[in-house]
Amino acid sequence: MYRPTVRYEEVYKEYVDNLFNATHLDRNQIIRAALFIAGHTEQFSKIIEPFIKRGMTLPQPLWNETDEDLWLNQKTNIGLDKLKERVQPETQVTRARPRRVQEQPTAAPKMFHSSNQEVSISVSGRQYPLRG
Predict the structure, then answer these.
(1) Of 47, 87, 108, 121, which has fewest CB within 10 angstroms of its CB?
(2) Alpha carbons 124 and 11: distance in angstroms, whole number
(3) Is the distance from CB of 87 to CB of 62 less than 8 angstroms?
(4) Is there a contact between 78 and 70 (Cβ–Cβ < 8 Å)?
(5) What's the gap between Cα 55 and its chain centre?
(6) What residue spans carry the region label Disordered (predicted)?
(7) Beta pairing partners, 126
(8) How many Cα atoms within 13 Å fall on the side-chain side of residue 82?
């Protein structure tokens, strides 16, 4: 059984406490329910996507939304091996093959002064005005 220590802001504690008082669920069930459904929501995917490592894809959860026993009970009859058997190979986390990136020669920037006292820099053929 995995037993992480979770640290979060007081606003989350208050929300979990309010859920605890409003339901017949304990705090662990509430946290497990949040993790359980997060893997199946578009909102969770959207907030995680910007933090995905280069060459990695967002993994799919091993469980289905109908596997309620996973979040309701601390000990479950659904084993990790059984869950992994259900997962299609294409949903497994994959690493992209490393690619060699060729360095492009960089041109030295050139500075230009125009007749109306504007200054610009040209790099690789593109001109960028300087504002002072």
Answers:
(1) 108
(2) 51
(3) yes
(4) yes
(5) 13
(6) 88-132
(7) 123
(8) 8
pLDDT 10s digits, 84-120: 776 655 545 555 555 555 555 555 556 556 666 676 6
**Cα–Cα distance for residue pair 32/39, rounded to 1 Å:** 12
Read off the amino acid at residue 59: P
What are the residues whose beta carbons fall under 8 Å from the beta carbon of 10, sequence distance 6 or more?
Answer: none
**With 0-12 CB in 10 A as exposed, 13-18 as middle and 19+ as buried, what is 63?**
buried
Do 107 and 124 touch, CB atoms closer than 8 A?
Answer: yes
Please give the C-alpha separations between residue 121 and each of 35, 105, 109, in angstroms, as whole numbers.
51, 18, 6
Give long-range contacts, CB 8 A cutoff, 24+ apart: 93-101. 93/56, 93/57, 93/59, 94/56, 94/57, 95/55, 95/56, 96/54, 96/55, 96/56, 98/55
Dump pLDDT digits (tens) for 52-76: 999 999 998 888 888 888 888 887 7
First to last CA, the chain: 61
What residue ranges do the domains of the chain occupy?
A: 10-91
